[in-house]
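Researcher: Here's a chain I'd like modeled. Treat it as a single chain, no partners, no ligands.
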Amino acid sequence: MTQTPQIDRRTFLLAAFAAAAGATADVPRLETLTQWLQAPRAARERALQACLERIHDLEPSIHAWVQVSPEKPTGRGKLSGIPFGVKDIIETRGLPTEYGSPIYQGRIGTTDAAIVRDLRLRGAILLGKTQTTAFAYRTPAPTRNPRNLEHTPGGSSSGSAAAVAAGMVPFAVGEQTLGSVLRPASYCGVTGFKPTYGLLSMEGVLPLAHSLDTLGFFTHTPDDMLALWDAMGQSSGTTEDLPLGVPDPAPEVEPAMAAVFQSTIAELRNAGVRVRPVDIVAMLTKLAGAARTLMFYEGARFHQERFNMYGDRLGDLASLVREGLEIPVQTYEQAKRDIADCQFLIGEIYKDTPVMLVPAATGPAPVGLGFTGDTRMNSPWTALGTPAIAIPMAVSDGLPLGLQLTADRNQDSRVIRAAVRLQRILGRNS
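Model: Modeled as a single isolated chain. Structure tokens:
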């Protein structure tokens, strides 16, 4: 969904920002959030200019942003002076919150969502709003994958993933209902993290399915994600040498993903990591179906009034409402019972294998922008409410492919630290 007048205006604003910043060739670039956190305040201020310059150069081809308008920080903390982007279903005072839909083009937020307030109070600089699929559902954003402009970056957190992958910001905020953080992270070759359901406030975030909606974050590396989690005042835990679970039989994925995933598991085993088979594929299939039922049932009822007003102008969301309203309450309640049963079963499995590894997507990013990808590698973990993180695997050629790590609910620091450990092992052996 391309909104040409808005893109033209945005490009003009970016040029003005770069000129106002006095961007020059010798302005330093801080590549990762870890580097930003280690840099003194003056270096952060200069690096912010480099971010604006990079956006000015790359945005016309990537279209990651709805608007770039750096806000003044409202607090001090570890994130002081560090810029970030926010998905455009998240309220921001004085900036667009248009839900990725032309129906709401020009809508300006009147308040900051809880997550935005928290980050700004910690000193972070809200750089602007990133593109999203319409209403965080299927109708694609204009965003392109920075790794290959002919491919989707994934959805629905399209702009947040692309902005980090392109080096425009060191971190960005997204949101996931089925696979909207983990899958774009895999497609764009960055780190994406979905915390435990309910751990972070969803105040000020447009709902799709209240039983599933969860905030998420994008950084370049797992080390960056751990640093962000700590800077947000969350427990960073300690490094643990834990056995890992891997589905056996393997889940059905595209050949490219299957080959790289199996190669990664073999590399970990060769490095001495304890990897155990777990029989969870049937459970994951059941959970994917239950998650879809919850999303359609709850999404239809939340958006029913909007559908009554706008009908097919809602794009793909209109089909969700129509189909969701046909789902009987008995089917919805059964889906919730299925998820509860699986939560108990997975909790037992996590006792022996505290971290599990699965592909972060079914394959590489699809070509074109019309389809943002298959969610079935991610939606089971969203339904379970468990924390999950996607990190890049080594790919000799072609588009990025991600490895997904999950842990039991409220074991957020455990799964992030496991990702840091595995990335270092894989990096050392590559």
